[in-house]
Design brief:
- By secondary structure, the protein is mainly alpha-helical.
- The chain has 9 helices and 3 strands; from the N terminus they run αααβββαααααα.
- It has a 3-stranded mixed sheet, with helices on one face.
- Helix 7 packs antiparallel against helix 8.
- The radius of gyration is 25 Å and the shape is globular.
Length: 230
């Protein structure tokens, strides 16, 4: 009996090489291939936006299991959720960054408390426009091309016939696109000379907004001329 116990103790002391644990065929080498790169991209792009902008609030990024095209920010848990159906409209990291940066701007506002959340509810259009422009700043600081906000919205943003002031949650997409363009033109003009302006969705948008673009550029040139004469 004593010999048996000694032998058993020796066997237990022998190190056993651990095998890689897998769950339904998923291991750390193939995990993202199994689950989909959209999750990995969402987490990494979101983290890059937060870090580059030195945002001091926690924002959680999540991929929703819905096929509809949508992304949203939650007041209750400070989470940005992008539906998996949205990814069929996303062609690059810049466009993903445009969506996440916009929703991040909403979450940062939510951190101001319940009063701000109420204000955002009753003045949705104003805060949507604010998030659009702030997202451009976030993108630039994180190294993304803000023109992607235009290419994505032109593909995925509905052009609603309804525009009922505070009763309608979002401004018309055409109005949002033009405001984003003007903001980039004034604050980050170099991006309007980047390769992304050759993107077919950007080119398509310029056809629809060419008259407004021409008028705006003319006004900006006149302003610059007046400043030069002072």
């Amino acid at each position: 009996m004593k010999k048996f116990l000694i032998l058993l103790t020796m066997l237990l002391a022998i190190p056993v090489q651990a095998e890689e644990v897998t769950i339904t065929g998923i291991n750390m080498d193939n995990m993202w291939n199994k689950l989909g790169l959209r999750e990995e991209k969402t987490y990494s792009v979101g983290a890059k936006i937060l870090n580059a902008n030195k945002i001091e609030k926690r924002v959680i990024y999540n991929v929703g299991n819905f096929n509809s095209v949508n992304a949203c920010a939650s007041y209750t848990n400070k989470t940005v959720t992008i539906n998996k159906g949205t990814f069929k409209y996303i062609d690059n990291d810049d466009e993903l960054a445009a969506i996440l940066a916009h929703e991040t701007a909403h979450v940062i506002d939510y951190y101001d408390g319940f009063g701000k959340a109420v204000a955002m509810t009753f003045n949705k259009k104003s805060y949507e426009n604010k998030a659009d422009l702030l997202s451009v700043d976030y993108m630039v600081k994180a190294g993304y091309n803000p023109v992607a906000a235009i290419t994505f919205l032109n593909k995925a943003g509905n052009e609603s016939l309804l525009d009922w002031g505070i009763l309608w949650s979002h401004p018309k997409t055409s109005k949002r696109l033009f405001k984003i363009y003007k903001y980039i033109y004034v604050k980050y003009p170099k991006y309007l000379s980047s390769d992304m302006i050759k993107n077919i969705n950007y080119v398509n948008w310029t056809y629809t907004a060419q008259k407004d673009i021409n008028k705006f550029q003319q006004k900006e040139k006149e302003k610059a001329s007046k400043r030069g004469n002072l």
